[in-house]
Amino acid sequence: MKTLFWSEQADYETTCAQMEHCVHQIKKQEAPEQIWYLEHGPVYTCGPKVSIDELGRDLPFPVIQSQRGGEMTFHGPGQRVLYVMVNLTRRGWDVCHYIHLLEQWVAQALNRLNIQAYGQKNGRGLWTEKGKIASIGIKVTSGVTWHGIACNVCNDLAPFQAISPCGVVGEKMASVACFMPDACMKSVDRALIASCPFSSFGV
User: How many whole angstroms separate alpha carbon 149 and alpha carbon 136?
Assistant: First the structure.
């Protein structure tokens, strides 16, 4: 398993193109499975079911159509985005098991920070007593996953108010900073690394 950390904000469309290329390499066993830790600049993204042309209103940041599943969300500085590329076919996992692992991973990391997060039967992601803290949007190509899960750490939550996050009207969003005012990305990353369920699976 190869782990990469971006030191600068990653352009959303460029990153998606890089992921797609990596997915094809993993499928052909020309590259190891990978996890990318990054932050995006401010951007709204929509899954295939959402038509940008039908939004009918102006938003404060660019809107990009994404290939991932799910509906509309916001990415911005201070949010930890985790893109995971693993070969479900070789591992013998189905999509439901994989999504559960993503949720469990971030929930366990947050628990290390004394934040209780939980999944819900009617939605993907993680919630806390103060609101939704992590959102999931994935895609699977030829048995290999891409995109992943985004956890709000110390990002501005106001841009979420302009949309219905993940298609839920009135969804309240939360972040690690709601529980820990001095929250920083490094402490969250340490917890994520310690909790990661994706062990190496060769090339």
Answer: 4
